[in-house]
Design a protein that fits this description.
The strands form four sheets. Strands 2-8-7-6-5-3-4 form a seven-stranded mixed beta sheet, sandwiched between helices. Helix 2 runs parallel beside helix 7. The chain is built from 13 helices and 14 strands. With 404 residues, the protein is of the alpha/beta class.
Length: 404
């Protein structure tokens, strides 16, 4: 039995998505930019897909949807595109817990003489709104780029309020949000709920579409230069022949997400069962981001005095797929930059595990996690020099022994 609980890293492709894509690999293989009649179904499929994606985001005009290869490209296109379009403004604002697809781009800007303000977060993973307002600089700030929800902890940021405050400070400051973890999981309404968000990025493989397809919402009138040049596709905003099957797959996934949105309440109930069960079964365990609004599918547990690598290895041996953070940095031995920014105690910095569910998660999956994980933690703690097996608690002065 395989229990897949790493949906924030990637998701299974929905069967309906595979079926929707199939004709565009075979009968409708034509280049959508060609002038002959046989190519028209492919071009029409892209137009229809754009409308479907726009509907999920609550956007009236589908031409504001730009198809990309992934959220990383969307983020790069948004950040580099805006800064190139506003060359006299040399200030950008982001947060300390962004995905590397944003943080590394901001570091590149800093290497090119931009001033980047990196906002800290508190123990719950939240940004101080007073800090945010103070960071805004009229006539200097080009862009604010803050994620909608964190991929490791699931903490949701108040993007509606932050984008409104940005525009109240100065309408010309562009506001971008990386919504990779929220599109398809929680309702997004860019017309009414988020009218001040100029740019929004997301990726298909986080919502049961294939890897290799993403999108960028660009509100009409937003100053942005093309990131990829060399062709007329996407109205000149992104060069390269469109990936028709994957665009169709993304649209079908968006359609399914809208249809299944009410099921997120069931996913939340499953997540809460795991959370309560682990809290009850494992001493010295805390929930990262517990004091904040979180995604309904995401649970990040900090297990003190245990190494995450050992927990993941034994979970895998038990048929449970989970992670210790972002899949894009999982090969690193360094502690998560998100947990470091949240000031997670050193005793749990390397012992945090993320379980992320989906609409395909079952009661049996939850039972299996609750069955195996407490035993894994107990076994690993028996090997720890900082854990007293007799008292089932840390040894006296354990914190000071490991450098606290």
């Amino acid at each position: 039995m395989i229990v897949y609980a790493d949906n924030n890293a990637t998701t299974a492709i929905a069967p309906e998505v595979v079926e929707a894509m199939r004709p565009y690999f075979t009968a409708e293989y034509f280049n959508p930019s060609s002038m002959y009649d046989s190519s028209k179904p492919a071009a029409d499929a892209i137009t229809a897909a754009r409308q479907t994606v726009a509907k999920l985001l609550g956007v009236g005009a589908s031409r504001q949807i730009l198809f990309t290869s992934c959220a990383t490209e969307s983020n790069n296109a948004a950040i580099f595109g805006v800064t190139k379009a506003m060359p006299t403004r040399r200030h950008v604002i982001t947060s300390a817990v962004e995905h590397p697809a944003v943080l590394e781009v901001c570091k590149e800007l800093a290497r090119n003489d931009y001033e980047v303000t990196v906002l800290p977060v508190d123990r719950h993973g939240q940004i101080d709104m007073a800090d945010f307002v103070r960071a805004l600089r009229p006539e200097q700030t080009a862009l604010v780029t803050i994620m909608h929800a964190n991929n490791e902890t699931g903490v949701v940021f108040p993007i509606e309020e932050m984008s409104r405050l940005t525009k109240e400070t100065e309408p010309d400051i562009v506001f971008h949000t990386d919504a990779t973890q929220t599109v398809g999981k929680i309702p997004i309404d860019l017309k009414n709920g988020m009218p001040h968000v100029d740019l929004l990025s997301f990726s298909g493989h986080k919502m049961h579409a294939p890897k290799g397809i993403g999108a960028l919402f660009i509100r009409r009138g937003t100053p942005i230069r093309p990131y990829m040049i060399g062709g007329h596709q996407e109205e000149g905003r992104r060069a390269g022949t469109e990936n028709v099957p994957y665009i169709v797959g993304l649209a079908k996934a968006c359609e399914l997400a809208q249809e299944h949105m009410p099921e997120e309440a069931r996913v939340l109930a499953l997540r809460d069962r795991v959370e309560k069960g682990l809290i009850d079964a494992i001493p010295h365990l805390e929930i990262n981001g517990s004091g904040a609004i979180r995604l309904p599918n995401t649970l990040n547990v900090a297990v003190h005095y245990v190494e995450g690598e050992g927990m993941l290895y034994q979970l895998s041996a038990s048929g449970v797929c989970a992670s210790s953070g972002s899949a894009c940095t999982s090969g690193s031995l360094e502690p998560s930059h998100v947990l470091m920014a949240m000031k997670v105690p050193f005793t749990a910095m390397h012992g945090s595990i993320r379980f992320s569910l989906s609409r395909y998660s079952t009661d049996a999956d939850i039972e299996r996690i609750l069955e195996v994980f407490p035993g894994i933690v107990a076994n690993l703690r028996r090997l720890s020099p900082y854990w007293d097996v007799k008292t089932n608690a840390p040894r006296r002065n354990a914190d000071s022994q490991i450098g606290m």
